[in-house]
Structure formats: C-alpha cells, structure tokens
User: Fold these one by one.
Assistant:
Number 1:
Amino acid sequence: MIEFKNVSQFFGDLVVLKDINVRLAERRIAIVGSNGSGKSTFARLINGLQLPTSGAVEVDGIDTRKDAKAVRRNVGFVFQNPDNQIVFPLVEEDLAFDLKNLGFRKDEISEKIDAVLSRYNMEGFRSHPVHFLSGGQKQLLAISGVAVMEPKYIVFDEPTTLLDLRNKRKVCKLIRDLEQTAIVVSHDLEFLEGFDRVFVFDGGQIVVDDQPSTALKQYMEMMA
Ligand SMILES: Nc1ncnc2c1ncn2[C@@H]1O[C@H](COP(=O)(O)OP(=O)(O)OP(=O)(O)O)[C@@H](O)[C@H]1O
Ligand SMILES: [Mg+2]
C-alpha cells in the first residue's frame, strides 16, 4: 500500500500540494486534473524522485525519505518522454543496465530481456540502436525497462501523450494487462474507464476521489 500522510509540497513560495492524506491500495488508479495542478509532483513523490516538504510518503511502510533506494526497487516510474529514461545506445544494453546493478547473472539477464521483448512484440529489436526506434517503440522500450525489473507498483506520467492512435491503444492495453499495480497520470479519459479509482487534482488538492464514471463526469463539468 502507498500512503500519503499529511503531505505538502512547496517550491519557494509556490504551494504545489497541500495536506494530502490518502491511501492507495487499488490495482488501477488514475490521476487527472488541469495543467499545473500537481499531478506529476504527486507521481514523483510516490517513488522518492521528489521528497515532500512536509509530511511523509510511505510505500509498504517504507518512508521515501528514509530509504529511497528500497522504495525505488518496489516502484517503477515511466516518464512522459521516453528520451528521459533511455540511456544506452542499444536496446539490450538499456534493458540490462538496472538488472546488472541488482546482481543478476548474465544468463538470467538475457532470459529476462527475451521475455520482456517478446511480451511487447519487440523481439526483433534486441540489438537495435535505440536511436532508430520510433516514438511509440521508444515508449514501449521505456515501459519494458521498468517492467523487466518486476517492481510491485508502476507509476506512469502521461504515458500515451506522444503516441499515435495505434501505439496509444497498444500502450493502454499493455497497462491494463499489467500484473502490477499501476498509478497513471493521464489526460486520456477514455483510457481510464474500467480503472478502480480516479483522483481529480485541482490547485494542489484532491477535489474528487471516486469511481471513473462519477469522477470523470465531475472533472468534465469542472473543465466546461
Ligand atoms: N522542481 C520544481 N521547481 C519549481 N516548481 C516546480 C517544480 N516542479 C513542479 N513545479 C511547479 O509545480 C506546479 C505543479 O507542477 P506539476 O508538474 O506537478 O503539474 P501537473 O499537474 O503535472 O501539470 P501538467 O498537466 O502540465 O503536466 C507547477 O506550477 C510547476 O511549475
Ligand atoms: Mg505533469
């Protein structure tokens, strides 16, 4: 379970999140809200990419401030732009890097890479230069790079924004079918139907916390 305990986030004088108290235990959680309402900040707080100004964020009882490394092992993060995430020149090198750091053997790493590439229909791209991948393929690689680590939770910050319709559908399906718990920031309301819980953010606060049908209706009214 992920828990926000009285979390506030300031940047200088700017209040970005205010007194957030929430427990996330559902398998599919979505976050919507206007630009600048604090969604990405909330997402980054979950895996300790950002530490709260006050209050605490805990993942399965581990405080992100006390053991960010352990938290990051359990919480994968997929950025909106895969270029922020892919660092190595070849697909297989990129997928191997974190696994090597975790101490997996060469043959184990190779097996895991084969499995993840096959799951996402990317088998042919194993020794492909990352540079030549399309935007959609890069996003799939970025997601593969997180999934291959088998974290318990995966946070996605607008994973479909850069994708064409076909790749968007592919990534949506892939997120729906994940074994892991997914927390997804998205402006794509259609995708969020079928989720277990939707938060609407406004001005750094959670103003709606409900099932998709109710929450998205309220959000659309707010945005009218
Ligand atoms: N590291 C930072 N330093 C200063 N201000 C920041 C920082 N990160 C975020 N902000 C500010 O916090 C506010 C909320 O930003 P955040 O990225 O969380 O919004 P968002 O809801 O994800 O918006 P969008 O829908 O545009 O992605 C914005 O005003 C942003 O400029
Ligand atoms: Mg954002």
Note: The longest helix spans residues 106-119.
Number 2:
Amino acid sequence: MLCEWTDHKVFGVKDGAILFGVDQGTLFFIDQQTQDVLTRWSRETTLELDDVPQADREILDDLRDARFLAPFGARHRLQAFDGDIASIPLTTMVLEVAQDCNLACTYCYAEGGSYGRPLRLLDPETARQAVRKLINDSGDTETVTLVIFGGEPLLNMPAVEAAVTEAQALSLETGKKVFVSLTTNGTLLDQDIVDFVHSNRIAVAVSLDGPADLHDANRSDVNGFGSYATITRNLEGLLKGATSAVAARVTLKPDQWQRIEEVFFHLLELGFHEVGIAPVSPVRLELLPDAEQEEALLQGFAVLSRAFLAAARQNRLLPFTNLIDLLARLHLGQTKAVSCGAGYGYLAVDTEGGLFVCHRLVGEESFRVGTLDTGADPAEIRRALDEVTCGRQEMCRSCWARTLCCGGCHYENHLRENLLGLAPGGSCDFIRRWFQLGIEVYAELRRSGAEEFLQRLEKRVKC
Ligand code: SF4
Ligand code: SF4
C-alpha cells in the first residue's frame, strides 16, 4: 500500500519520546525502536509499505493505525473553518456595561476603559436586549455564557442587575442554563454587590497582579494611588460565602516576568480559587519583551508546571488555569480549525449596542459587525476575520502547533502587525515552547497513570 506521512512532531522527554499527531491532536509515548523507524522512514515523502523490511513493517503498520501514515492522497489536514457563519449558534456574549473606569492602569488596552471613545454606560434596557439576543440566537445550545465586562462594570450596577435578572428570567422560561461571569478591578466590591454576586452565583474574576509593590506599579487610580489595599480588603467579603469560583486575573509586564512564581503563590495565599497569568499586550512598543524577558516568562511557567505536577502526584489540583486549560484540550485531543470563538458564536456588545467580534476589539471600527437591532452580519464577520488572518495562513501551514494555536489571538495580531507595524510571527517561538511544555506535563501525568486526575480537567475546556 502506498502511504504518505501525516504531520507529526517528536518530543524527547525523560525516559523516551512523545509523538504528537498534528491534525488528530493525538499523543503517544514511543520507544527507542519506534523512534529509530521514524528516523529511517519519515524523510520519505511517500512510502510503499509492502516494500518495507518486515522488522520495520510492524511498527509502520501501528503508526498507520494511529493515523501517522495515511493512504496516498487520502491524508486528512485540518482546514481553517470556511463554513456558514450564520449557522453557528451564539454561545458567549461579552457585555461592556461601562466604557469607563476608576483606575488608570499603565498597560490598559481599553484606554482607561473608554475604548478610545467618550465615557459611557450601557443603559439597562440595552443590557436586557443583549441578553435576549444571546438566548434567542443560541439555537440548541443548552448552556450559554454571559460575561459582564468593562471598563469597570461595577460602575454601572443598574445594567449589571438588569442583565442578570433578564438572564435568570429567560433561563427559567427556556430551560437554558446561563453561566454568568464578571470581570472587575475589585475596588468597588461593597457588601451589597458581594451579596448580589453570591446570591446569583456569579463567577468573579478580579484583576490583581500580585504583591502590593508589583500590583500598585501597574494598577493605580488617576491620582497615582495604588489599589492593592482596597482590593484585598474587599476580597475577604467576596471569598467568604462564595458560591462560584473567584479567580485572579493577572497581567504582568515583561520586567515583572521573573516574579511569576511569587505572584502565583501570593494570590493563592490570598484565597483565590484560580489564578490565570497573562503577559501584557504590547499596547506600546516599550511593552514588547526582549529575548531574555521571554525566557523568564517561560521559565516562570515551567516552575509553576513543576509545582502543578508535584501537586498532581498527591491528587491535588494546583489552580494554574493557563496550564489546566491546555492540559484539558490535550487530553480531549481537541484541535482547532479557528484560533478562538471570536465571531464564531462569540460576540461583544459595546455600550451603544454595537456588536464586535471580540471584547478586546471593541471600538476598532473594522471589527464592528452589526448592532443589537440589526444582528451580526455574517459577511462582516468573515471580512473582519479575513482581514486579521490574511497573510498568516502560509506561515501557519507548516507549523507543528497550528492545530493548537491556529494563528493566535486576533487582537494580539492586530496590535502587533497593524498598529505597531511588526512582522507576523514575533511571538511564535514562545507559543510553540509553551505548547511543548504543556505536552511534556501531559505526558508526565499520563506516564504516572493519573487518568482520573486528567478526567477532572476535561470540564475546563473552553472555546
Ligand atoms: S505558533 Fe505561529 S506559526 Fe504556529 S500556528 Fe501559531 S501563529 Fe501560526
Ligand atoms: S483569543 Fe483574542 S481575539 Fe479571541 S476572543 Fe480571546 S481576546 Fe478575543
């Protein structure tokens, strides 16, 4: 039988190697013999299996069964999604209830919460209209997600309450489950708001960047006063009696990446249930990292990954969400035909009822795809996403990480390439090394027989 190789990548790990099937998203431990066979034969573009010596043939048959070899001409390659966008149900809506903020964070991508436009709050009726749209456009989807966002959303409690109340009423009426989350800077969390959050089982993400000196250097008010003391005081009430997970949402600048381990454990000590760490978006050129800083970021993530493995050996889940989300996808073999849900079942609504493909692209006119009144125009979604992905397909086609990354975050790409004028691919090396780290951790968990532990992670898979 004439065969050809499907795309794959071999990673050397302790005591052996892992074979990753790019299009299938599969991972296998391979022994030395299999590695040798791969080295001998994988340079051949096509392979006549019947001509292969028997000693290698058995292993090649196993690789064919695992879809690393395909009959010539029948190789499956995961293609970028080009189907009918109109047929995709709306499953996640991000509601910008306040294009305003009481902080003046040094790295803010939303220009002080305003998204570059006059300060404005969403009116409660538009909030209700948005929630109705989410439910009406969700097709057969049983669970939808409403993300309450800003600026600082707690500046506009009337709209928050209107959205949550409408979501509950429609959930009762339709039987759909509405998962509500709220992202806040944490400075305005008084007892009334905390009671509201608890009684409505809202999952809260608080932006907190670590110990006081580090956090306050990033997140102060307009007068330059840090917000750490206020947030940590408010946090106590939020954590006490929490009915949903309270997550820390960390943003770190390149010169802070060497403190990742300290930041993570500080936030765990404060009582957060989950911690996710994001490298800052380079909204200004000086926020672009150099090679040494990128290495520090990766090393920080590697240290947390080792801590994660050590905890897993004791059947404890270290709540490092960056890694958990990646491990869950690897465990499910979940590959991507699009980089994220933006525009594909995921929309953001601004304070005027405008629809955008993603919350981080709110205010960028080329990513406006409709209004709550007219609905999102599938042709506009296609145009907006084509614009931001054009020129990347060629670069990604030959990348082993393409079905995990699929081109990366549109906002980050837009920022780097269209606004800062950088060449595409500047963060690819980091992206691939991060995925490799995740693959190595996953392999280690599998090797240690932590199947039950891995199943616990499945629930975490996101779009
Ligand atoms: S790592 Fe870079 S080349 Fe690879 S898929 Fe992602 S964006 Fe494309
Ligand atoms: S990955 Fe980027 S573009 Fe996609 S939804 Fe998230 S922030 Fe938006």
Note: Residues 395-396, 399, 401-402, 405, 407-408, 425, 428, 431-432 surround iron/sulfur cluster (ligand 1) (CB under 6 Å).
Number 3:
Amino acid sequence: MPRVLTDQQLSEFRRDGFVAPLDCISSKEAADCMKKIEDYETMTGEDVSKNIRARAVLAFKWLLDLARHPQIAGALQDAIGPNVILMFCAVWSKHPGGSKFVSWHQDGAYNPFDKNNGATAWIALTDSTPDTGCVKMIPGTHKSGFLHHDERYDADNLVSRGQTVADVDETKAIDLAMRAGQFSIHHEMVVHGSGENCGNDRRVGVSFSCVATETKALSGPQTGVLIAGENKPGHWALNKEPAFDLDPVGLAELEAFKDAYYNPDKMKLATETNV
Ligand SMILES: O=C(O)CCC(=O)C(=O)O
C-alpha cells in the first residue's frame, strides 16, 4: 500500500500526537461538500449536527466516500496500521459570532478498548483559522495516559458530555490552521479542543475517528464501518452502509448506534472499565 505520510510526518505524529496540514481535496470540492450540508439544513430546517451525529457516514454516502479518500484512508493506515475501522464521525459546525466551543479532551477517554492507539482524521470543509476557532492540540499529551475528565455539561460545548480535562497548560497549545480541503491526523489520546468562532465565516470540519480492526472493545457497541484493509480477526460487526444520501438503511443503523453511544449506561468511560 502506498504511503501518504512522509517519514518526517510520521515521526511528528508519533512525537506530538498529531500532524497537519495534509492535502486532500481542493477548496472547490470542499465548497461542494458544504453545499450538500447546507442543502440538508435548508430541507430540514436544523443544523446538520443536531441529528446527524456520532457516525455521520451512515447518513451521507458522500461523507463515507470522503472517509475512504486515498489521502485520508492512507494517512490513517500509516498512523494505525493497514486495517482501519471507523467508530465515530461528526460534523463540527461553528457559526460566526456564536459561543460554541470544544472543551479540552482526549477522544480515547470514552473508548473502552484493549489498546488506545486509534487516530482521527479531521478535514476542514471551510477555512479553519485561529479566528474562526480552529482545532488546537497540546503536543505530546498522547503519552500521558488517561487524564481525569470532569463532565461539565454546557449547551455551547460541542462534546456531548462536556468532558473536560481541567489541568491543561494552554501556553503549549498549537493551532491547526487549515484551508478548506486540508486535513489533520490526531492520536486518540492527545489533548485537544477549540475556542469560539470570532471570525466572519462559518467554521465546519468533519472528524473520522478510527481504530485498527485488531483492537477489541471491552464494552459498548462493537460495530463500525470498514475504511481500509480487511476486517480481521473479526472483533467488529460491520454496519450496513448507505447506497445514497439519507438512505433509510444507513439512517436506521445511525439511530441504533446513537442510542447506544449517548446512553451513559451503555457507554462507559474507558477508565470505568478494566483497561
Ligand atoms: O472541531 C473541533 O473543534 C473539535 C474536533 C474534535 O474534538 C475531534 O475531532 O476530536
């Protein structure tokens, strides 16, 4: 399989827990993706992230195709190995002048897996800058193990339980500025978040959170969508995939997954399980 990340980018990922910016699609193609999101919002009268959450690739075929784009799938393979399964996908939308933010967190804190070395590809669908509230990373924190998260529910916090790492040295934060169509890869244990959108334009990005298929879930849903390679040795049941946007087959799978993902009795913190 051809490599996407250079040796240097791979060493950066291993050292810092993230690498960016990486090229994927053109700004024009990113604008076409935004148009699809806006058309959905016009049709439903609601923000895309209200109902299309948690595993958004099950709702939109174009989003599933984007997850499998050779640049994104290939970079994920370089980061976590040849067999890549997606367990989480969200559209992160912040309107200008709004108060939405993402608290400092480790994605892996909610992944009760036998190993926590998965990675997320985050693609900018609009230009993402410090002004518009781009994602920020604290380098090296993927090596800190599980950090304590407070659950600070807040309507403006885009992470669902308001999970927040309190003790963060923000002076170390690195802004991941990207033009529309570029993406980053981050380790599931790196501490990251983002601030309010103080710019003039909407900031939208999509995350594809993946693990190697060899990873075993110790609790919670053990389903996913294969992005690259093979589903072996068979720890994961594959979702039925949408054949077109808003295919009822994919939407039913999405609803079943959301029910499990947002139910605290079904989804435990990784630190509440045996890991
Ligand atoms: O889009 C953002 O601002 C945060 C994204 C994020 O937390 C993630 O992709 O894990």
Note: The pocket of 2-oxoglutaric acid is lined by residues 92, 102, 107, 120, 122, 135, 192, 194, 205, 207 (CB under 6 Å).
Number 4:
Amino acid sequence: MVRALVFSALVLLGIGGCGSSAGTSSDFYMCATDARAMPYQSGMSVMSSTGVFAVELLSSSPGPPVRGQNTWIIRVDEVATGSLLDELDVSVTPRMPDHPSHGTRPVVVTPSGPGTYTLEPVYLYMPGIWNITMTIVGSMVGTGTTDTAVIPICIP
Ligand SMILES: [Cu+2]
C-alpha cells in the first residue's frame, strides 16, 4: 500500500514536470498563453542569430507539429543576396528549455531540392516548448560562415 502511494506520487511529479505551469488539471500544455512559442504556419521563417541565413519552415507533417514524430522541410537562403543555399552542413537539435536534462532522437537532415532540406524525425515527445536549433555551416558564404537559427514550437 505504501509502495503504491509512493509510486503514484512519483507519477504525479513526473506529469507535473511536463505539464502546464498554470496548474490546471488539463493534460494539455497551455500553448496559447506561452509567449515563447511561434504559432506554427507553413512558410514561417526565422533569421539566424547574426542575420546571415533565413530559415523558412516550408512544412511540418503533420502540421501543426504534434506530440511525437514529425517531418519538417526547411529552406535556407542567404539574407544578403536572397540566394537559396545548397550544400550547407545543417545539424538540428531539438531541446526543451524547461527541461535541460533531456533531448530527443537524433534528427537526420537530407538535402531535398534547391536550398531545401528534409528533417526527420523531428521527434517532439513531450508537451511544452521545444526550441528546434539548426546549426548551419556554409562554406560558400563569405569565407565560411557558421550560424544558428532557432524555431520555437509549442506542442500541446
Ligand atoms: Cu521535456
């Protein structure tokens, strides 16, 4: 009996750690009230941190992204020239800013057209805010440029 109670308490703590900070009894994360997220829209775009690259999220499948497995297609261009950039070295790391202790499955990046890359799996297995960080290395830009871009997505 004592054992069962301890187990229940641990389970509740576990759920609390990934649930809404608003303290509701719902198991849906309150995406609408979290100002850190960008609402998903196909074609949404972000600038890399020093403004060299623009990254457009052409599509998420499913879209909006769901809890679990997603496939993303992004397109990268050079802001200064508007050129689509092929042959970039793109690596992708999804992390939850509220849960520094875990990541997720490795994301495989596959070139799939002019300036276009397929990201799979984008495995967002918990509700809450995920920062999808893309580290982009462009040896053809300037004398070689590395920059990062982040798409913040909320999973309900
Ligand atoms: Cu988490």
Note: The radius of gyration is 18 Å.
